[in-house]
Protein 1
Amino acid sequence: MKSRTREGGSRFLLGVLIVGVPLLLALLGPLFAGEPGPRAASFTAGGGHWLGTDFVGRDVWRQVLLGGRSVVLVALAATVLAYVVALPLGLASALTHRGWLEELLMRPLDVLLAVPSLLMILLVAAVFTPGAVGLALLVALVNIPDAARIVRATAAEAAARPAVEALRMQGESWWRTAVGYVGRSATRTLAADAGVRFTGVLYLVATAAFLGVGVEPDAADWAVMVDRNRTGLFVQPWAVVVPALLIVALTMGGNLLVDSALDHRKRRQK
Amino acid sequence: MNTESVAEIDGLRVEVGGRAIVDGVRLRVRPGTVTALVGASGSGKTTTGLALLGEYPHGARVTGEVRTPEGLVGYVPQHPGAVLNPVRRVGALLWDIARTQVRHLPRRERGEAARERVLEALAAAQLPDGAEMLTRYPHQLSGGQQQRVVLAQALLLGARVVVADEPTTGQDAVTKRHVVERFAALRRTGIAVVLLSHDLDVVRALADEVLVMREGKVVESGPAARLWSAPRHPWTAALLAADGAVEPVEPDDGEGEVVLRTSPFTARHGRTTVLRAPALTLRTGESLAVVGRSGSGKTTLARCLAGLHRHHDGTLLLDGSPLPRSLRARGREQLAAVQYVFQDARAAFDEHRQVLDQVARTAVRLRGLDRGAALAEAVSTLAGLGLTEEVVRRRPGRLSGGELQRAALARALLARPRVLICDEITSGLDTVTRRGLLDALGTLRRERGELCLVLITHDLDTAALTSRIAVLDAGETVEEGSTRTVLTGPQHPFTRALLGKEAAVGVTPSGR
């Protein structure tokens, strides 16, 4: 048991470390970026530039410092927002005994589910040219159907338990039954889903940025950096590798953290 | 060391969180005998039994010596369905084991040899028509057949010791007799059976050696015959005494005020009609037992009354005013008036919150008490049922089944119900705990004269506690009358069968 605790602990530390680097860079990076220096030649290494220069001759390190905030914030906001809508929808449809209400809540989402998310984003982007906030809303919207279905499926199992009937027998409020018991029982599955979903959202936000939705074509943004600098990949790889690694670290570390947090809770409950 | 024994436990002590759940247990298992561990739930039977398999609770500190035979020890859990992979056929489950044993044969002969071994094991596990079982999935088997498939797995592995955990719990009389025959046959093949049970009928019919456990210690052990005729320890005596039948109570005079009245109704599950209930009239101070085998519709009847099953066409009248069919449409007072205690107490509690809080919530929600007053009342009600505050401050996972069932009863009682419906609340409990719970219900009837009690049960001992009995078979009420009349002079053949078969377990030859 001791060794397992230590293993869980080290996984937690590893997760913190892996997720901490990109997160700190993203959130605090802009504070240390400083003033833009004069532009140098494109795709050069050295010359006072730590990680070389990018496709228009800007310092890559400075771009890295500046470029995380938009990706991370948009992805986080989109994930949270998706759940804010999906949780009440899923819980309500799992706990109701009225078939029509469940249909009313879930059926429209199925329609949304049928449209490929990237296509949807590109379509809307073509009409509205959204900014960062618009992108977050859009990505949240395409994630709501999946998230709501998972919430409902997980909650439906918990909602069918005698414990819920017993709570109703006690005249317990909807809120306490839904959130206090059903929601809580579903936490493990939902946390695992949130980890995966965050990864998916990050991918979607990065892809959207990569395709030029929600950000300027030369913006300081990790995803945009990967896209714009890939022409110089063999001349000056850092401009692509560093932002790409940071995005990977963010998703991987996030999943590790969620896993070890769940393990910890499970052990405590035993 | 006794050379005869195939497995031994010596001075076993298992500690979890500083509390010893098994302490100084000594056990000898000899081939071709049945060793029974009896005791109340939470007495350490299962922990001792699992120690033979080398399994201990999570984070346990274990001292002592456990010697098991070469080859594996078989384990037949209480719910055998849970250990069979639901997506694989029985044949595949057994084949996996058999295949590893025929590796030494030439490739061509392997298939035939494995098949032979599988069928042999099934026959030894009392499934003579085994060939036809092989293509079925576990869920297509009855509980008894699942039990035998698990047994066949153990035998195929060459187990010389089989640990059976509560093999008869929650079964009706007919099924119980089959289980007894099954293990008796196993014993004849020279396999040692360790029986963990609180069902004394089964222990009496099977055991050669009995160990009586209490709070982790063996209080008495010896040959079954001696133990039964002359128990030395007072606890053994109490355990045996609690096993007797209850005297039927005097029938009520039917003078109580009518609390709940129903029209005759039929209840459906989807499109299938599962119950045709007659008009029911429940009066204050009365108690009604609804008796029947599993699947007879008795739980559905109870759930209809409680508002948990709303697909029926009856009208319920509480004090003459209509009571909504669904729980969700019932108001506070209506909810409080009709309370229901669930069969599976563990599933009916939220595993994340401490029991006391959950019990007290009834008084907060249904009677508008503040939290402090509700907690105080919960503590005193629970204490009245024999649960100390220290116990109920824990989470449900750390309470035994009997303790949880009493807590569930307290939870319903805090609503001050007029009608209390108890669904099979004594099934799955050992004799002492069951007697304790029945006594508590008896006390309740005396102390709360206005309470109307409805007991759903398949156990006629429990039914004897009530004043009126309704017998259900396949969704129809076949007999209804005062308890004394029904138990002493049953009119319907089904009731007679139920009574006759109840007696049958006791007379099964012990095979010694």
Protein 2
Amino acid sequence: MIRGTTLGGVQDRHGFRAMNGTRWRRRYRLTRTLAMLMVPLGLAACVQVQPYLAKELPSATKPLRVLLMPPDVAAVELATAGVPLPRADWTALAQAGLVDAVADTLRKHGAEMIRYRRATGIVPYAEKHLEAIALHETVLQTILTYRYGAAQQRAALPTKQSGLDWTLGESVAPIRADYAADYALFLVYRQATSTVERALFAAISFVLFGFIHPTSQSVGFASLIDLNTGAVIWTNLLQGQSLDVNRPDGIRNRCERLLSGLPL
Amino acid sequence: MKYCPLAMLVLTATLGGCSVQVGKLEPGRNQPTEVSERGLWLASRKAEQSVAISGRRVRNPQLEEYVAGVQCRVSAAYCPEIRVYTMKVPDFNAAMAPNGFEQVWTGLLLRVDNEAQLATVLAHETAHYTLRHGLEQFQTTRQTASLLLATQLGLLFGGIGVISAGPVGFSTGNIGQLIAMGYLAAYSREQEAEADRHGFELMVKAGYAPGEAAKVWANLIEEQRECALPNPPALFASHPPSEERLQNLRRLAERSSRNGITGRSDFLAATLPKRGKWLRMELATRRFCRVRVLLERLIEQGENLGELYYYRGELYRLRGGTGDLERAAETYRQALYYPSVPVTTHRELGRVLWRANRVVEARRAFRRYLKTAKSPDDAAMIEAYLERLP
């Protein structure tokens, strides 16, 4: 939508008609402007994933039961100066979109998706699952730092060089007992988009001074936990800029990318 | 065209001159409907979730119930909307999120003298909630930050000079975390003054002694002045407890015709059992000047003197400056006169005496420890000390 507005507006005002000298110069300027505008917009379409797999799963004889933990989702809108406004509506949209997309993906893999029964209080988890949840969060941070971090950090743990080698241990036992599931899937998703003013400002400041102001970004993290052993089987990090984050197909696309390579 | 500069000036004045005004919250409203307020509530809820399961949360039904009770008393009709969490953090702070989730730190419970003073702080926070200061501040920040960029851009277009806007902060991080860290607690001077006034009304209406309100700030100012604190406590990071605020509260109290309770005995009943643990946390920060001022005030009040002298001894032992070992030994001995003395006092006394090469006395202190503590966990270690002592 932002893309359409910016480019459409420029094109409308500078339609290519007669080709006298002034027009040529104007056309050259326009081409340059458009080319420069395309750079941030080009960046905008780029989404990367970095999956890691600890080990291939043994082939299952019956459909695997995968428990989807409540996804941790936040969507914000950035004002001109970058002050983020958390958006409850977009967060709900992203959350629902993620769950749908996960259900479809798991179905394709021939697995059965089980939904986590949210607790009614402030904390959505049952008290006895909290230890595993909190431990997962810490392990996630560790993986992000030492697996996905800068080269220096990836080399910082000599005993963790062989691959994905983390586990939540016995803490997952209460979850396994309550849901009789084989695996648990955790999702963390953050997205930011810009107001129209910020997008315009980004375009202007890029054309004039070459500053790149990111206008839209999504970051996702997925992990698959073996509920029998607690081992982290697979992780994926999605990072990228794209302008369609608030459209249902955009969310679906992000989620499919995030779950690409799921070893089920 | 000639009106253009004038129009710009008017526009700038309108945008820059006034902060956003939002109305007071009506009691019993469940969910906000407006976009930015809904967003803030969502982020606050996330922050609340992490606080609710935090290891720092005080899990003591008696204390939690007590603090929630005082909160209810001052917030009256808003009581069901406010959820208060006591957190084990050694600093003076209380914070209110826009959705009514409130934190009270143990450092605050140590630094207020009675229930009326605690109520003053809780009422101040309640005022931030009912007057929707979080939302107001958030919207103002959003507008002014945008205006700042717009102004810079305007200057650039005008060719006055290149001001580098730089890469503007871009965060997809957890907004809830920012709230938890007090990102939104940086209220404006006007908001603080308003919360002081409104909070005062609430605490007086709840039946607390009006004169106690100003004492909270007086105690804090004393601590800050005495220790020449480089950073004011977190709650006041933007607007420290000034003489002005203190005087305003004093004036309000003088004008008030009502009497009220201080609630000291209830406060002590709820907090005294936990006080030693909190003092230990204060000492762990190694901000010895602050803890010394705090201990002096508590000793003056005279509750559980044995425990207080013990922690004062601990302060000297941990500080380890010139003459501190002797001071520590002397203070531990002072502690031993009182029934509330912790049993570990004998052990610590033994250790400082040993370090001061007073071996005979050290031996005696360790023996007393073994005798009074009745087979403590570290008995084997103390036996080893006794063997090694020359």
Protein 3
Amino acid sequence: MIRSAANRLLTRRQLLAEGAFGVGGIALAWLLSREEARAVPPAVVNLQVHRDLKARPPQFAPRANAVISLFQHGGPSHVDLLDPKPELSKRDGTEYPGEITYSFINRASKRLFGSPWKFAPRGECGTQVSELLPHLSQVVDDICVIRSMHTGANGHEVSIRYFHGGIPGVLGRPTLGAWVVYALGAETDELPAYVVLSDPGGHPVDGASNWSCGFLPAMFQGTVVRAKEPRIFNLDPPAHLRGEVQGRNLALLRDLYDHYLEQHPGEAELEARIASFELAAAMQVRAREALDIQQETEATHRLYGLDNPETREYGTRCLIARRLVERGVRFVQIFHSGQPWDNHHDIRNSLPAICRRTDQPVAALVKDLKQRGLLDTTLVHWGGEIGRLPVVENHGDPAKCGRDHNGQGFSVWLAGGGIRGGITYGETDEFGHRAVVDVVTPNDFQATVLHLLGIDHQRLVFPVNGQPQAITAGRPARILSPILT
Amino acid sequence: MMKLALQRVWRPLRVREPFLVGLALSAGLLAIGSVAGWAGELAEAEPLTFERQIRPILRAYCWDCHGATAEPKGGLDLRLVRWAIRGGESGPALVPGDPDQSLLLRRIRDGEMPPGNHKVTAGEQQILEQWIRAGAPTARPEPEELPPGIGIAPEDRDFWSFRPIRRPPVPLPPMHGDRIRTPIDAFLLADMPEGLSFAPDADKQVLVRRVYLDLLGLPPTYEQVEEFLRDSSPDAYERLVDRLLASPHYGERWGRHWLDVAGYADSEGGAADAPRPWAYRYRDYVIRSLNEDKPFDQFVAEQLAGDELAGAKVGEWTDRQIELLSATGFLRMAPDATASDDSPENRYQALADTLRIVGSSLLGVTLHCAQCHDHRYDPIPQSDYYGLAAVFAPALDPQAWRRPSERLVSLYTEADRREAQRIEDEAQAVLQEKQQKLDQFLTEALEKELAKYDEPLRGMLREAVTTPADKRSDEQKQLLASHPNLNITPGVLYQYNQAAADELKKYDAKVAEIRAKKPAEMFVRALVESPGHLPVTRRLHRGDYRQPQEEIAPGFLQVLCPDAADAVIPLDDPQLPTSGRRLELARRICRLDNPLTARVIVNRVWMHHFGRGLVATPDDFGRLGSPPTHPALLDWLAHWFGTEAEWSLKRLHRLILLSTVYRQASQHPDALRLDPDNRYYSRKPIWRLEAEWIRDRMLFVSGTLAPQMYGPPAEVAEDETGKVIVPANERRRTIYLQVRRSRPVAFLQTFDAPGMEVNCPKREYSTSPMQALALLNDQFVLEQARRLALRVEREIPADGNDNEFLYRRAVRAWELALARRPDQREKKILSDFLKEQQQLYDNGGAPLPDQISAETQILTNVCQVLLSLPEFLYVD
């Protein structure tokens, strides 16, 4: 059941044979995959709605068929992590020459704040990465750092919703994960297709809206796998029902359903209902197995840092993410509780702390996927909703200073699944405040992720009040072709 | 026989004075000749004209920049053909007869226009091309001038849902004999293709369960089913329907449907999602109103303008005034994040969400699409949106906002106040006594401390302590600073004299006890105006509150007012203490010559009875919504509802439930070929119970459903795993549970209970493994299975001489759960299962929970399976 890298990409023949999107659509899609989506003629969309998780072929040949998104809430400080700014260091302490948009005026200053940490070229590619991320530095040849992300808004919520739902600040829309499983369905009928691995500290800002199905049918929302037992609600029968007892109860249920169905032939809904019990029963076994990291070798445990109290928790979730994708889960997203990257205060200590918690597990995930041959077809995303300002945020004691929000320019990275490794894309200005070259918006990001999965973001639509709705909501979005292999 | 039945269903025509207006309903008896062209689709033979086919396309794609604004982009105004020919800065846009030379079409074809991703479809381009080739004809001469904006053309008013409601004649389809029980049946049969008819009537046993669950959201008991089966009188079913319509549980089910569209929640939404402790009065108002069959026009008017109907407070609020104020809770159901964050964004959002609820629940129009610009598809200019906002402005004014806590209406009476004062006086007396004691204790403690010093120091210290702090000399201050032990305050008295401190505490307890007797202050979450507050409302450019434009007067939707004067709502009604704006709006909404209100509610009721509406989009009767599948039936029902039925929902239910279409079986094999999707209603499809009624039904059959109605909601909680649950001792019906937007009850959410982002015009139904897991393992389900088993055991005690008691118990559990006896095959399956189970447990092959015998566990296993059966989760 565990899939190998080889059988994960559909052949063109399969596409044509099974194409739910129609031959015309596929012919067009092939064209598009060569010519870029910018040339998409208007409104060639499929408004046929479906309400099941059957595996569906993509619209055109995909590069990836699963996504792991490591969402870094709070706004990781790109100028201290992934976007070196020598000019900023040189002019440390002097005044920023331009306009700055702050979130916290009362603590604002224009005093430039050079990174306290050293950058150096890493890997064969030589991408500069901060000393705060020694483990990521080891896999830098596999990742593409986008240094020109831009949401245009400093607020956390505005930008988080932009990343998930496609419109800044608008809550309650379907998230990227919901769209992906709506488009492609599930590859396994023993596990949920869209899994959210939540933090032991609780849900992030906006709670369940981060994995909402919005206006899509409810089955496309993310299933939360909790950070502690029980990782899935209602997964465990009480001890006295476990195993054979429940098996016999289900057999009784099946017999009585069959009898009822004989009198009500053709009721598809009832067929689906009894099938759902069978999936649930399978999940009780399979989900537990998938979540059981004790099956992994000690070397793997060490790779993800499970032997270290500081990295154990995040490492466990990264490892579970790999196990889920390996078993056919389509979209896995790992969240933080609160905003650990929101380093307004005491950045000299708070930033290294969250790096220590996550750097090794994140790098381990990339390494592990790669050595198992899964990285080619699994897209890994790491990034927050905003970045941080190049100037000092004051808290009296200069030693305790931090950085305020910055939605004008920041960094995220992508790896695997059709992404060119070992490169950077886009630039911020000399201080790291604004994205100035090859600016990337969350809509571009969404369009690119969908493109890698073989989906045209403009043709993945759902009718709302008869109007086709897409994740990018008719906003400009481009596919970042220079970063694709 | 048939005639008799019809008379009973159709109460004699007796025109009730409408609730608000003295309008004589004269529209009643007009019949319309034709219902063709309902869908507004392009018919083959129809000649293309600008007004009919081209205008909607240009409106959707072009007018935002080339027509709606005062200064059209590039000088091009596409609202008239003449102007299109004249063109703009780029030259003529239209060359009649020559599509390829027409810039308009060329730029559309190139994909250059309109900008953005929302492009003119190929089909629409073809229509444009044909029309231009035909010479770009108009239906009539174009006007010389147009007022600014997109305006409303006669063609806009001619859309099916905006046309007046006329009563079509009831068809008389031949060959159906006694299948026509009501006009509904006649309309449906007349529409069926040849060879198709209704399914046979459902078994009485199926029917009785259907009608119980449909009207009450609760199943019948086994005994109630038996009683109905024994009743062979010809009107047995009719009397059953009447009995159920009179049940107070009716309001608990149908009230829930209304609460869905009203967006009922017990919390404010926004990041903090603060609780709304008094929202429940609105929920109770809805349940009571439906139970007493308040005419729908009155029901709506009370919700829109209850405060205006209530009039001024003279002395105390009367019960009727409290009811009317509670009704306005409808306009306070939208999320209101100003409860925790009073920002302009949140204020405007609360107003926008309220208008959205009004539009989707009452009018079936997507009003919110006109918030930022003229509606792209329906004839609702942006100014109409702000005209409605102006109607609400005296009460919902973002410029002079009141947060939810500032809007509560206190129900404290003068008598309450006096009683509270009397009790407070009593408390004050005790406090005075306490103060005396305290002074005494402080003096004693001080004396005891002073006694530790010798004269003359003692005298100096005493003098220093007793001198008021601000009169003390520097020496005195110095002296006291070096003797901190003399700074005896009530807070540290215990350090000097514990017994005294304890005695004082008893006074505090006594005061608390006295104060607790004060009458509790209750509130209504109401919408009321600030007296004399008549703010100016302005249109907001792109819906942005920072960009106010021209003033907009209060008004109703122009498309619903053929006479322009009807759209005007007066600024102020001098006869009323309030502005009268919402009362006037209620008058416009609640009458039969408003084409939407009656159609929308009739369609909603139909949707809940049949699983889908005659119009599949209950909140959108506009161009983007679905056209009615049975337009004549919809209009007949709407008209009948607003005239003979006098807006009585119960009479509407009754008419529907007595119809053959409702009484037919779910199985109709003959019809599968002719009506595979049941478009013609040739069977009554099974439907899944909504989340609330799955929970209620489980409590009901386990015998533990608590009967109390109304009152403050039962709070939800998180269990030790973080799952939001209903505390186990809370067994009231689900409608009485707290609806916390940010904390949806996991079990209910799993079964698709709506989240109430704003409101829920139509529910989704999913089938997911999470639901199966809940039915297999959720504590609530396990508990109800256990309780059902124990209930059966109490009824059928174990008997040492009876080997069959387990089987008899299982059959009884079946009766209780499904309200029928198992058939032969089911009995066999059950008895085989029981034998297997006995072997399993006899051999110790399965563990037992604490204190539970094998017999009880076996029965519990059976019960749990019963709670997951199709007949339990679905209604046939």
